[in-house]
Write a structure and sequence with these properties.
Elements (H helix, E strand, L loop, with lengths): L1 E7 L6 E6 L5 H11 L8 E6 L5 E6 L17 H4 L6 E6 L5 E10 L8 E6 L12 H13 L18
Antiparallel strand pairs: 1-2, 1-6, 2-7, 3-4, 3-5, 5-6
């Protein structure tokens, strides 16, 4: 039996604790997490392995994207193979247009058998709309634009330049 805590990345606390069999595929966990938060589960999604600081690592997509068919997918991974130890973490991104982001952490495991997945703790309500995400590269580009806005002003009026006398 595994228990994971799933925390939605929003201002207000929206948390679910989900209990399931350790042999559950990540694909089934995807549907169970979506269901626990009131989502339909019909959007693209990915899990990402994560370290203790929640840095995004290896992607495990919903569908195998490799042409040869040998890459990872949620259907080919079981939770016990990905979440091997207590406190192991995953980042789960649901709906790449809305970018619902969840932090998943294995909080308990035991030899107890579990017949079906259960949400055993529910805190907070799912917001109607996903929060806007600010990506670091977007901020860096914005900072660059602000710093260099006047760098090329000398070239604004090329028609007034006398290029024949150079």
């Amino acid at each position: 039996m595994y228990k994971v805590r799933a925390i939605l990345d929003v201002e207000e606390d929206v948390i679910r604790t989900i209990m399931f069999d350790e042999n559950l595929s990540l694909e089934k966990l995807h549907f169970d997490i979506a269901n626990a938060f009131g989502l339909e589960g019909n959007e693209m999604a990915s899990f990402y392995k994560s370290d203790d600081e929640w840095n995004q690592g290896l992607e495990i997509p919903l569908f195998n994207m490799a042409e040869a068919g040998e890459e990872l997918s949620m259907a080919s991974c079981t939770t016990k193979d990905i979440l091997e130890n207590k406190n192991d973490k995953l980042i789960y991104v649901y709906d790449f247009l809305q970018m619902w982001t969840f932090y998943i952490e294995l909080i308990e495991s035991s030899e107890e058998a579990v017949a079906e997945t259960k949400t055993i703790l529910s805190v907070g309500e799912m917001p109607k709309d996903a929060p806007e995400k600010v990506f670091e590269s977007d901020q860096l580009l914005s900072d660059f634009d602000d710093e260099n806005r006047d760098m090329f002003n000398d070239f604004e009026d090329l028609d007034s330049l006398d290029l024949d006398n150079y």
